[in-house]
TrEMBL record:
It catalyses: AMP + ATP = 2 ADP; ATP + H2O = ADP + phosphate + H(+). GO terms for biological process: ribosomal small subunit biogenesis; rRNA processing. Interacts with small ribosomal subunit protein uS11. Not a structural component of 43S pre-ribosomes, but transiently interacts with them by binding to uS11. Residues 113-123 are annotated as: LID. GO terms for molecular function: AMP kinase activity; ATP binding; ATP hydrolysis activity. It comes from Exidia glandulosa HHB12029. GO terms for cellular component: cytoplasm; nucleus. This is Adenylate kinase isoenzyme 6 homolog. Residues 38-61 are annotated as: NMPbind. Belongs to the adenylate kinase family. AK6 subfamily.
Amino acid sequence: MVRRAPNIVVTGTPGTGKSTTAELIAGSSTNVPMRHFNISELVKQNNLYERYDEEWDSYVVDEDKLLDWLEPQTADGGLILDWHACEPFPERWIDLVVVLRCDHTKLWERLEARGYPLKKIQENNESEIMEVILAEARENYTQEIVVELASESTDELQANVERIVQWIENWVNDHPDGV
């Protein structure tokens, strides 16, 4: 099967704007239909988890179930996978990995506003400071497809969306026969 649209991962520490960015990309890409999958929601809705972790207030994802569910979706392309991790997604599926970054002080405020417990705020803030997700992306994908973008303001958010939509359109133009 020929894939005629790219598959993109939008990743970053919780609170960096992944879902908002992914939703805006999906809604802005007029020439290329893109589908947004919020992986956290997808996991809950389709029982793609092993159990619920009370301490972290989150589901423990069954990555095999998740990948089995996603694989047929990736064949046509046009996916925006929005999650705080990127390493589970096979490199052969992915054309662009966008790692959103945010100053740790702003991130702390965003997570506090969401009502996250202190332990979870601290863990996520440390992850952002230590560039854990950026390192994960660089370890699992070729350098050419990993892009780090600041996501601290509405202006940056809009610029990021415009940049990624332009990238999608360029990808389609550069691959007229698909991949």
